[in-house]
Amino acid sequence: MSSSFKSSGQVSYELRGDVAVMTVSNAPVNALSLAIRQDLVACIKQFEEDDVAKAAVIVGAGKVFIAGADIREFKRPATEPHLPDVIDGIEACSKPVIAAIHGVALGGGLEVALGCHFRVGVKGAKVGLPEVHLGIIPGAGGTQRLPRLAGYEKALEMIPSGVPIGADAAKAAGILDDVSDEADAVAAGLVFARSVIDNGTPLRRCSELVAPAVDAQVFADAKAAVAKRARGQKSPVVCVEAIEVASQTSFADGMAKEREMFMELKNSAQHRALAHAFFADRALGKLPEIEGIAPRALKSIGVIGGGTMGAGIATGALMNGLAVTLIERDDEALGRAKATIAKNVGGAVKKGKLSAEQEQRIFAEALSLSTDYASLSEVDLVVEAVFEDIDVKKQVFEKLDEVCKEGAVLATNTSYLDVNAIAAVTKRPQDVIGLHFFSPAHIMKLLEVVVADKTAPDVIVTGFQLGKIMRKVAVRAGVCDGFIGNRILATYRAAADAIVVDGSTPFEVDEVMLEFGFPMGPYAVADLAGLDIGWATRKRKAPTRDPRERYFTFADRMCEQGWFGQKTSKGYYVYEEGARKGTPNPAVLDILTEERKEKQINAQNLSKEQILDRYMAAMVNEAAKVVEEGIALRPLDVDMTLIYGYGFPRWRGGPMQYADEIGLEKILSNIKAYAQEDAYFWQPAKLLEELVASGRTFADLNAESGNNSAAKK
Ligand code: TC6
């Protein structure tokens, strides 16, 4: 590595007496971009040559120390100076270098600190190696230095999980040498440097430390445990392997091996998917229509309906500090709602997510129960969660229009009904929005913020604000049957049903999707949700069904037998008393055979790959239509919806990212081939055709939207 890099000034070098303070300044999180790496090299050289400076302190400007490598640069070929070399250069310094950490030191940021001879943190600082969440491993010595400094167990705890730890825990683990009471990192670093200079403390290089030996079984056990949790994601397992390397070889060889493992993962589809998800998460709320607009006041909410959904929404709001007024039709229903909320809140206390005092405050102060809509006269926002019937919902909104204060946001939690039609019964359609929570609403992360034709921008912002308060991932959706998620779900479920009627079994489809990385297959999910729900929907839609649509009867026949899934102990699977996992119900196969016989279908034997291709093609095609119609503003909105609400494996990045990886041309040609058998179902999305014709991808569309920071240069 050349040490002749000229400083661009993003890392400043300033003498404070006999201590050189190097300040890394790359807003917002001091990511280790090429310029920062070059500057660090230049500053270290300057320090070595500076006869006045007896020690150096590295600090970060702004809110954090350093949040890691610049993730955006990973898309481009690696450019010198590489981070591991920069850090080796810091560690090789002949004079003490101290990392003074405030905010966070994450990933490459902690690796820089591990390359320093000493580390001091201020109160509230956190350190961690979260690279695993990006589908990579720490690639600048983290897997080799951390175990040497803190031991293999600590490294095995921190690196494969990616979970940061606080300053005190880091000190207890030996990662920080001290937690300072000083107000800022510079002061903490200067105090520490003084003591090192005055005491002549010998330099401590992590690369030269020897960690206490451990039994090889520790690694085997760790690998087995993380592989089980990772469900197909590679990086957690490679994290363990890289730490194991540290126990087997010299530091230099370990570094070479770490680099090899890092580069392989950095070039993988899993890394691309997880980096996409990282930036997509941050792009969700960045919408031109609400830029610069403030939310309305949001301290208290009303919830209409205390069933599973309403009680779940109320729980989520209460747990996050909102006051809730819950409305039910009579005292008995209110009692049931309160019991459900108490059970939910009690569960959260048991899991340590809420304190007993918070629980007490919820029931003493924050929750009000009422049978009278007039109790909602002062709330800031109301979420209606009554029976999924348009007339019932319209009646509720008429009442809300009468009692709610001016400016209150009126939200419906419908999962597919027309929010415009609901808004139209009020005199204030600008205040009406859909807020589609997912059950159990106090646990599930996704919130679809459904924007109707007349919804005011500050009402949209307030929807996002509610999501933020309730720690949800809010995605903007437009009005259509099923919005983003349920609409796409209906299509890939229909594709699955066709696969099954044409010859496969529901169990094979479930297995393929489990292997793909979903936590459950679609039929196991259907059993959990209750088969009667889909049955009711099919009956409701029967009069408007297009005659060209292939209609399958097996699910109706199952319901006719009273098999509604888990709640009746029988559905696609048979459930032993109290069991949540079932065994395949063989009678389903008989029902399918009957249907094939009636429809004169010759059962075809699809391979796992063919099943997957069809299922995913259906998902991607409908998703493309959803984007084409503006129901989802960008492909990334679809990806996050499927990840947070439907179990799509994050390490595959969502269906659109997956489609980009597979190649849109291949997906389109599959769709066209399937259309030979069923032209009605397999109508290619125009957007897909356009993208293929112009050689573009869904990622290009995200970038063109201008709101995906991954695309920024
Ligand atoms: C690594 O280090 C590998 C090393 C080996 C190399 C050989 N790069 O999250 P926020 C952006 S891998 C580029 O909203 P917060 C982010 O996109 C890295 N950009 O803020 C957003 O941009 P926007 C390991 C980054 O206060 C803005 O900064 N490190 C990076 O809620 C603000 O971010 C990690 O995985 C980055 N590394 O949380 C840590 N980090 O405004 C990743 C952030 O254009 N970062 N941005 O949308 C975080 O966990 C959080 O950002 C945070 C701050 C806790 C630092």
Describe it:
Helix 18 packs antiparallel against helix 24 (608-628). It is globular, with a radius of gyration of 29 Å. It has 29 helices and 19 strands. The model is unreliable at 708-713 (pLDDT under 50). The longest helix is centred in the last third of the chain and has 21 residues, at 608-628. The protein is an alpha/beta fold and 713 residues long. Helices cover 49% and strands 12% of the residues. An 8-stranded mixed sheet has the order 12-11-10-13-14-15-16-17, with helices on both faces. Strands 1-2-3-4-6-9 form a 6-stranded mixed sheet, sandwiched between helices. The structure holds (2E)-Hexenoyl-CoA.
